[in-house]
Predict the structure.
Amino acid sequence: MRLLSKSWTAPALLAAALIGPVQAAPRSAPLTAGAVASPDRYGAQAAREVLQAGGNAVDAAVATGFALAVTYPDAGNLGGGGFMTLYVDGKPYFLDYRETAPAAASAGMYLDAKGAPIVERSLVGPLAAGVPGTVRGLAEAHRRFGRLSWARDMAPAIRFAEQGFVVPLQLDAFRQSERGPFIGVANFDRYFDAMRTGRLFRQPELAATLQRIAKGGDAEFYTGKTADLLVAQMARGPHPGLISRADLAGYKALWRAPLVGDWRGYRVITAPPPSSGGIALMQLLIMKQDDAALFHGVALNSPQYIHLVSEIEKRVFADRAEYLGDPDFVKVPGAALIDPTYLAKRAAQVDPVKPSATTGVTPGLEKPQTTHFSIVDRWGNAVSNTYTLNGTFGAGVVVEGAGFLLNDEMDDFSVKPGAPNQFGVVGGAANAIAPFKRPLSSMTPTILTRDGHVAMVIGTPGGSRIFTSVFQVLENVYDFNLPLAAALAKPRFHHQLFPENTVYSEPYAPFSKSLQDALKRRGYRTEAQDFNGDIAAIEINGQTPTPTADPRGRGVGMVVK
Ligand code: DON
């Protein structure tokens, strides 16, 4: 195992971001076609239209990003943020357009007088929203790499908003299941009540907002009429929000050095902090390889497989809770966390038979509804983009007059040390709330290359399930040699240190009675969770892309000639 970016630390990362990408490789090889794997068909159509008009993968990503803000309001967004991993002309890049805490945010802002978390406050209503990054992020990517005009890339989204789109069953189902907590606190129903299965759903206010952004660029969103509307929305609701005009005007998307490591002959290009995803993914991949002898002959998703992977995941989540946060605010020991010697030592602590005691799994260093799309173009460039409102439909707050939903990303901070967030994960000082800070994320947009050419583009929503899902699919493809579609279709499971010795199954593939019994005999509790990701991936064999969407969602894969 050879790891690149060995001297990778927060300051080194910043320096690398200023001087450009960390490494160069041969120019990407042309493909027989472009391709997109999108979480819905409208996002795929937008990419196809722009690729066919001569746009590259970045133009297509801008088109899909804006289209999903219209047709996938459960996670696609203008009012959220995300991460984009890119591979352009043979070089890796990473764009951080994560939301930031408003200037007026403070560590105790979601605690009551007794110091207990008020759970809904960081999840619903304007106070839950961080300063949105998506529009600036898409604009930055476009300024640096786009070939077509900004307005051309935005055209499909404007059309979907103006003329409407036919509402998929799953979207209406989410509307119904998620609207409850918004009632009385946020204006969700006023805007989305008409979004019913099979009907045409038009969003005229959103169309006008997109038109303004198409004309005025990202500056319009951050300093123009849209900014005024967003700030006005902060005052509406029982708990006013904190986002000010100055917060919006000062928002920056950041080019950071991607996290780059080598694994099984592939170069893995993935998300650095403020995501935990890249570090966690590399830890999972490397520790599993270190434990190869234990995994020898162990069948995919057998009780022993689930046990061994859970043992590794326990250790990953212990490190995540202790060390990871926004690298511009806390020193993240990134290089130490993916150091081969450190990981070999951690991997050796895996108990081959039974769950290690949860209290015994501590951070290891001695001292010192999100959505994803994947795109490749015929020139061999790739974009892996995960962006989010956090919860499904975010904070449930629509900016009145502008027609888009705001995020509840503030919940990704550690509201109080040790208090679990909505994904059940805990954190401490490294991820405490501070003005302008970015909350720790799990989003893991990832690109694998081989000999300088793109081999896989992959990512998923799922909160803390994100990197364990990406990990499982990569294992299915590269260790179990499954075709991509079969790799996505396999059941997934999840363990994250807390709750203690709990292994989660998913509704898509519930654990059989015998599997549950086998896990119980080993000391695990099994629990059903309602979601385990929605992978959108493209595998490239030779020069042929195979885009594939997760059978769990409403996504499509489309080859674009
Ligand atoms: O950044 C994160 O890790 C979370 N805000 C992602 C949320 C998510 O994946 C929701 N999707 N189910």
Remarks:
- Residues 32-83+98-254+372-431 form one domain.
- The chain has two domains: 32-83+98-254+372-431, 262-369+444-560.
- The two ends are 38 Å apart (CA to CA).
- Confidence is low (pLDDT under 50) at residues 1-26.
